[in-house]
Amino acid sequence: MHFVNSPSRRPLGPRTLVNVCVLLVFGIGFASPVRGGPPEFRIEENLATAIEAYDGGDYRTAITAWTRAANLDSTDAMTSLADMYFRGVGVVADAGRALALYRKAASQGDGVALMNVGDMHLNGYGVRRSSLEAYFWFRLAGRAGQVWAAEQAEFLGQNLTDKQRLQVEERLSRGIPSP
């Protein structure tokens, strides 16, 4: 076979190959919040750092790493931070802050966060106690695959009026509320 060496079919030179490699390594790496870039922009690295630090009792490092990942919209990090604020591990216990973090993760459909928001409403942690609100959040969590939450919703639903259940159904049809 014979190939015609035209300008459009010219082989890539070494300088072009180096530029392409630099673009791939740095350009794509920095654009992704999961891979490449500085540590504060890598979700998976921050999650791993947080878990290792937490397991080792270094709560300050765990909070810093989970905060970085939560700022990149990691629902796992949001719920882990919320747990720490709820229980007061490495921070002053703050049910209101925990609820805000759970709500943010819940707004993205995180089943554990949806369930925890329901539990906080049921027990009045950081919010006025409300079986009706708990029922709503447990129903959402049940839809997200949380079996315990679905069971709780079924139990709570037995004590609601038809009008209350209808109100919740209407809210459910609108989807997950924003935080």
Describe this structure in words.
The protein has about 180 residues and is mainly α. Helices cover about 65% and strands about 0% of the residues. The chain has a domain at about 95-179. It has 9 helices and no strands. Helix 3 (about 60-70) packs across helix 4. The chain starts with 13 loop residues before the first helix and ends in a 6-residue tail after the last helix.
List the helices and strands and how they pair.
Blueprint lengths: L13 H18 L11 H13 L3 H13 L3 H13 L7 H12 L4 H13 L7 H13 L3 H11 L4 H12 L6
Which terms summarize this structure?
mainly alpha, 179 residues, elongated
Range of strand content: under 5%
Low-confidence segments, given as residue ranges, are 1-34
Query: What is the β-strand count?
Result: 0
So what's the overall shape? Answer: elongated
The computed structural class is mainly alpha
Overview in brief:
This protein is mainly α and 179 residues long. The protein has helices at residues 14-31, 43-55, 59-71, 75-87, 95-106, 111-123, 131-143, 147-157, 162-173. The chain has a domain at 95-179.
